[in-house]
Amino acid sequence: MGTHRGRLVHLELLAMLVFLQISQSFLSAEDGLQRAAFNVMLLLVVFSAIRTFSRSRVRRFLALGAGVLGYALNSVSELGGSVWYLATADVCFIVVFMLLLIALGESVFSSTRNHLNRIFGAVCIYIVLGLLFALLYSLLEIFQPGSFSLAVLPEDSAGHQETLSRLIYFSNVTLTTLGYGDIQPVSRPARNIATLEAMLGQLYLAIVVARLVGVHIATDTSDSQNDRS
User: Fold this and answer.
1) Phi and psi based region of residue 168 (left: phi greater than 0; alpha: psi -120 to 50; beta: remaining)
2) Whole-number mean pLDDT of the chain?
3) Which residues fall within 8 angstroms of residue 103, CB to CB, at 6 or more apart?
4) Residue 6 confidence class, pLDDT cut points 50, 70, 90
């Protein structure tokens, strides 16, 4: 029962992450209701992520607090206010995704025999990396406008969400090293972070594939020895 439940937890998170990735591209930043829908989806990802923190109550409460605060700040920014609300909201979701990466990493690189759960977790890590770097790029664009070859947008909730949507696309393109070139890092920090993301994307795939293959071979060898005995 515990194994089956673990699979469902990772599959639920994977479904939420994929849904967020796809749906955000169809949401208009100019429409208040659609911006609210995007913020709700982020919060739902947080709630789904919390279920992976079963090993640590501290992480669970930290993620919940950061996620709810980020959602609240994004909502308050709809009424106007300082750009610091948006920047702090980005930091909150960065904290959530970093905690999520730690929890997923423990699952993927553990010695458990739950291979399906490990595969779901590995895919989740890849998607979360893209979202995490997109938020880092968003912060950089807030504090150093013009870091990316993007159109200048108002420093309000609508402009922030449109920028974040474009940076999610840029982050995924960079992580997979597709390199379309329609959005480019301009400032030195932006170039360095983008380079780091591309390197992590390639190293992650190599390390995870090697790990999964190694665990699979070790499990098959162990099972064969048990059958002989």
Assistant:
1) alpha
2) 86
3) 49, 52, 53, 55, 56, 59
4) very low
Q: How many CB atoms lie within 10 A of CB 90?
A: 24
Sign of the alpha-carbon dihedral angle for 187, 159, 132, 143: positive
| Ramachandran assignment for 146, one of left (phi > 0), alpha (psi -120 to 50 degrees), beta (any other) | left
Question: Which DSSP string corresponds to 149-218?
Answer: S-----SSHHHHHHHHHHHHHHHHHHHTT----SS-B-SHHHHHHHHHHHHHHHHHHHHHHHHHHHHHHH
* pLDDT tens for each residue of 173-226: 999 999 898 999 999 999 999 999 999 999 998 888 777 777 666 665 555 555
Q: What does the pLDDT look like over 18-57, one tens digit per residue?
A: 999 999 989 998 898 999 999 999 999 999 888 777 677 8
pTM above 0.85, yes or no: yes
The beta-carbon contacts of 140-144 under 8 Å, at least 24 apart in sequence, are: 140/187, 140/189, 140/190, 140/193, 141/167, 142/83, 142/86, 142/87, 142/90, 143/87, 144/187, 144/189, 144/190
SS3 sequence of 3-53:
HHHHHHHHHHHHHHHHHHHHHHHHCCCCCHHHHHHHHHHHHHHHHHHHCCC
Tokens of 61: 């409460």
